[in-house]
Design brief:
This protein is an alpha/beta fold and 203 residues long. The chain has one domain (2-200): Glycerol-3-phosphate (1)-acyltransferase (3-Layer(aba) Sandwich), CATH 3.40.1130.10. It is built from 9 helices and 7 strands, in the order H-E-E-H-H-E-H-H-E-H-E-H-E-H-E-H. It has a 7-stranded mixed sheet, with helices on both faces. Helix 1 packs across helix 2 and helix 6 (97-105) packs across helix 7.
Length: 203
């Protein structure tokens, strides 16, 4: 699958023409959760592809099992970029998605997550779900790194099958942490603001 992974990186680069900006943050092998806005099914692929090769090897995008398990191509693509597929329809009490993520990442892997849950139009970010908060609470050592992805929704618009080559900008910002005693709503608003602030840093 290594060859397929390289092919995915080349294809993502060709279609999105992405540029990557690290703002007050550097590529690092420490365990992180990269959390980004979500406007396209290509978001996970493009962000994963944009990381340096040594980080791609230890970073797993979290993706919806119901989407990435369908058909012949998508499951193979998901395997190629080592996606962690989460079942959104059959959530078990004793095996929550957060517990699964923490178990699967162990003390090696970083994650790519999209706290909005579903995709948005790209004009305005949705409210963040609670998953990022619980990741920070159960693993306070994790660096939570905000990412703003611009223009991928135009590469593969919602409802379309064929992507259109366009330029994409990925801005990766400084890590944040869940502060001791910080209320969930306050943290989620702060995390969302950290992503939105990166939109203003473009250019």
């Amino acid at each position: 699958m290594k060859l397929t992974g390289h092919a995915i990186v080349l294809l993502a680069r060709l279609l999105s023409g992405y540029t990557v900006r690290w703002v007050d943050c550097q590529p690092d092998t420490c365990q992180r959760v990269y959390f980004a806005n979500h406007t396209s099914h290509l978001d996970a692929v493009v962000l994963w592809s944009a990381l340096p090769r040594h980080l791609r090897a230890i970073t797993r995008p979290v993706a919806a099992k119901d989407y990435w398990s369908g058909g012949w191509v998508k499951p193979r693509l998901a395997k190629a970029f080592n996606a962690m597929l989460i079942d959104r329809k059959e959530i078990k009490v004793h095996q929550s998605p957060i517990d699964l993520m923490i178990r699967e990442m162990g003390d090696v892997y970083s994650l790519i997550v999209f706290p909005e849950g579903g995709r948005t139009s790209g004009e305005e970010m949705g409210q963040f779900k609670s998953g990022l908060y619980y990741l920070g609470k159960k693993r306070p050592d994790l660096e939570l790194v905000p990412v703003y992805i611009d223009n991928v929704n135009r590469v593969l618009p919602r409802g379309e099958i064929l992507p259109v080559p366009l330029l994409t900008c990925i801005t990766i910002g400084p890590p944040i942490f869940l502060e001791a005693g910080e209320p969930k709503a306050d943290f989620l608003n702060r995390a969302r603001s950290a992503v939105r602030a990166l939109k203003g840093d473009e250019g």
